Amino acid sequence: MTITAPGVPPIPPLMGPALPRHGEPGFSVWPRRVWPLDPVAAAPQRFVAFALIAGLVGTTVWRPTELSIGYPLVGVLVFAVVYGTAGRRPRRFEVLGIAMTLALLTVPALLASPWLGQVCVAAAWVTGWHTLFGGRSWTALVAGGFLPWLLPARSVGWAGRSLPRRVHAPSVGRVAIVGAATVVLVLVFGGLFASADPAFGRLADTLVPSFDLGDVFSRATVFALVLFFVFGGGYLVRFPPALDAAAPARRTSVPPWEWALPLAVLDALFIAFVAVQAAVLFGGHHHVLETEGLTYAEYARQGFWQLLWVSGLALLVLAVIIRVADTGRDRRLLRALAGTLCLTSIVVVASAIMRMWVYQQAYGFSTERLLVITIELWLGAVFVMVALAGVRMTAGWLPRAVLVAGIVALLGLAGLNPERLIADRNIDRFERTGQLDAKYLSGLSSDIDPALQRLPMSVRQCVHRAARERGGWYVFNLSRSRAAEYRYQADLPAVCEPYWPGFYR
């Protein structure tokens, strides 16, 4: 018999054990259906040993500030330890993710372009963690790049529980205090002895190795980064979160007219734009030459960035419409209206690409222009995939396909060797018109050196860079190893005046 106060409903009986509260073993801010926490799980000692070895090897072969062979070597090392000790083989998508991540990390070892290397490393971060986190939803795709920062809270305890129970490791604070006290004693008394006896001073100089404090700090940072990758990856392959379960629930669909009317009006607007601007979109050189007062710059810049925004916002509109529409009853109407928006958006993407291509042919190529063309090509591929998903009204494969398409586009850009392509096209323009922006080319990396061989020697000396010291094998970069030595000259020869606008003013 349960006795309760008047007016107070009885407490329902508990079904199963109560969930741990804050501060208790097993407590997690994540719902148990998304990412439960095992409070007694411990990392295998074999895995911990390999992780420490990987950290030491990483400090030897990787310099994060250098685009070098260290990036793919560390990537191979991390994946080898993570999956080599997991007790299972990588799944099909994990194999693809590992291959794409390593391909992205190989770009800094082959090309010397800083901006391209940084973009590829950032993409490798997203792809690599998504490979480990898993998930097929948009929530999993977006969260995969941010959740790694929450991993240390779990992986540190998981690794710490691998220590034998009989070993009582001292606290970090006590270790720091004892170490600091030892160093102070050695420095004080050692310095006094060295100043008291020259012979002892020479012996101390011989026995005590000289080291660069900055280098020690950088090596320690690399060691910590590699451990972060290995322990985080090792934890994820054993305790992956169900990020798809964290996706927001689908809301109740709205009446068809509430989404069909604005979508139909938007379709009409897109169709009108494509129809009216057909000559502008596809006129190319002939349209520019035949239109009075219209230059190449005006043609290319006339709405290019607006068209880029139109492409991105059209994808957002499609995402909202698909979420609120009833894909069962309104399937035909949704296919017709959303398909029209996809097709016209592809035309808008093509027009934006053509505008920028015409501009580059007239005024030369640049890294920014190639990058935005790559983004537009990727957006065009996304529209095609959205249209294909609408044919069968199944889009479970779409988030991963969008990610793969983006990686393929980026690797395709890297495969073109963009800075050399830029230099080749600008040198083609120099051969036709005699105009060359040597100042811009001097700001590019050693990737352009093969293209510079096409210039006359008198002009080639106007494109220069600062001399670079060649380091150890661990900072090897294919492009830099093949580059000729160019030294910076403060005073350019007089022949360079036409190719360095504003330099002599």
TrEMBL record:
<feature type="transmembrane region" description="Helical">
    <location>
        <begin position="259"/>
        <end position="283"/>
    </location>
</feature>
<feature type="transmembrane region" description="Helical">
    <location>
        <begin position="370"/>
        <end position="390"/>
    </location>
</feature>
<feature type="transmembrane region" description="Helical">
    <location>
        <begin position="336"/>
        <end position="358"/>
    </location>
</feature>
<keyword id="KW-1133">Transmembrane helix</keyword>
<feature type="transmembrane region" description="Helical">
    <location>
        <begin position="69"/>
        <end position="86"/>
    </location>
</feature>
<dbReference type="InterPro" id="IPR025291">
    <property type="entry name" value="DUF4153"/>
</dbReference>
<feature type="transmembrane region" description="Helical">
    <location>
        <begin position="216"/>
        <end position="238"/>
    </location>
</feature>
<protein>
    <submittedName>
        <fullName>Uncharacterized protein</fullName>
    </submittedName>
</protein>
<feature type="transmembrane region" description="Helical">
    <location>
        <begin position="303"/>
        <end position="324"/>
    </location>
</feature>
<keyword id="KW-0812">Transmembrane</keyword>
<dbReference type="Pfam" id="PF13687">
    <property type="entry name" value="DUF4153"/>
</dbReference>
<feature type="transmembrane region" description="Helical">
    <location>
        <begin position="93"/>
        <end position="116"/>
    </location>
</feature>
<feature type="transmembrane region" description="Helical">
    <location>
        <begin position="172"/>
        <end position="196"/>
    </location>
</feature>
<keyword id="KW-0472">Membrane</keyword>
<feature type="transmembrane region" description="Helical">
    <location>
        <begin position="397"/>
        <end position="416"/>
    </location>
</feature>
<feature type="transmembrane region" description="Helical">
    <location>
        <begin position="128"/>
        <end position="151"/>
    </location>
</feature>
